Amino acid sequence: MARFEGKTVIVTGGSRGIGEGIVRRFAAEGATVFGTYNSGADRADSIAGELNAVGMKVRFIQTDVASEQSVKELVDAAVKETGRVDVLVNNAGITKDGLVMRMSEKDWDDTLNTNLKGAFLCAKAVCRLMMSQRSGRIVNIASVVGITGNAGQANYAASKAGLIGLTKSLAKEFASRNILVNCIAPGYVETDMTQKLSDEQRAGFLNVIPLKRAGTVDEIAAAVAFFASDDSAYITGQVLCADGGMVM
Ligand code: NDP
Questions:
Q1: By the 8 A CB rule, do 36 and 116 touch?
Q2: Residues labelled catalytic
């Protein structure tokens, strides 16, 4: 039997990049997947159309993770259709890079609101239900820069470091109800987000990755699936770097 048959999985930011890879992975393993998009309705429609046509169960819902009302509507839709939420993947994220001396308050707030507050709102929206189920998995997508810091990414690195603190706190709060909370810290993965990097920045990353290549969205999705599966039943509050050895 497929590993996630009968499970309901929510993946925020599932319409592109790493999130799309995560949606595809869970759908292929039998889950009913609720992906979110924020602005990219066409892309979300085409992924859902493709996967539903081959019998997978995928639905996309427009969601702004920084809005409590929008997150509530997402979770309500999943619960109305399936009656449960087994796995939440907080993947939605943005970058608004710049040196601190030139960074606007808005760029700081937008980044923290999407990357950190979004994860808090989504976790809050599912936790009561997961507690009553006496089971649940939350997987947060942080970043290696949340561990190392990065010049030009103070807002983004702070949001990802915050996500690591949030992961550990939720792991402690929810453990008694068998809700496990873990974090993946990807290194450098080729997606729209990293298309913005200059050739020089890209070369700089590859230079410090022992495996000497970028990660793929499928490799990140595999790590997420591990944290959502029975294979990780005794692991909570951890940060797994999926980064080709970049940070160790
Ligand atoms: P992309 O830019 O390719 O995709 C971002 C996704 O997030 C899109 O689906 C987008 O939806 C969604 N999104 C953005 N803002 C919101 C919002 N306010 N509410 C809901 N959804 C939103 O990013 P990646 O796939 O590269 O990154 C995914 C995650 O992985 C992020 O958290 C990122 O920080 C992290 N990460 C990525 C790395 C990389 O190298 N790529 C490295 C380390 C971490 P829409 O298109 O509809 O706007």
A1: no
A2: 156
Using 50 as the pLDDT threshold, list the residues of the chain that sit under it.
none
Contacts of 3 (CB under 8 A, 6+ apart): 29, 30, 225, 229, 230
Superfamily for the 8-241 domain? NAD(P)-binding Rossmann-like Domain (3.40.50.720)
pLDDT at site 123: 98
CA distance 158 to 5: 36
Ligand 1 cavity residues, CB under 6 Å:
12-13, 15-19, 36-40, 63-66, 91-94, 114, 141, 143, 186, 188-189, 191-194
What residue segments make up the domains of the chain, in order of their start? Answer: 8-241
User: Cα dist. 227→182, 202, 224 in Å?
Assistant: 7, 29, 5
Locate the ligand 1 atom nearest the alpha carbon of residue 144 and give its number. Answer: 43
Tokens of 63: 């969601």
